[in-house]
Amino acid sequence: QGSNEMGRAILVVVVSAWFAAVASMQAKPGTAADEAAIRKNEDARVAAWNKHDAKAVAATYAADADRLTSSGYFSGRPQIEKDYADSFNSFDKTSTLKIKSDTVRFLTADVAISDGERVITGRTAGTIEIHNTSIYVKRNGEWILSAQRLMPKPQ
Description:
alpha+beta; six-stranded mixed beta sheet; 4 helices; 6 strands
């Protein structure tokens, strides 16, 4: 009878461990704090844009980030900053950026996609709506924008 109880105890431990493993695999990666950190980065980028501060906008990107827009492909923070400076000195000189909608989806505990719509008003070429997809990576405990793809919405 003692070995029967021991067998049941082992079975309970094994089944409990299995359920815990399955539950952890199904747990949603990323926390509310992670999402808030990503949204804070996006809000900082919008605020810097609306001040037409190319250096501050570029600072919201990882040093090795890349960005693809209708203007071209930009790799690394210096190229990204130059692209913003060029646009702020021309067609985006008096523009205002606003986030219309945005969702954050975590692929893993340290990789997330921010996907949503942006509208830029006050441009010399007129208002434009853009679909934004940004990849965020958590490095050294901080969420940083690693890659961005922008696509103008059809008019």
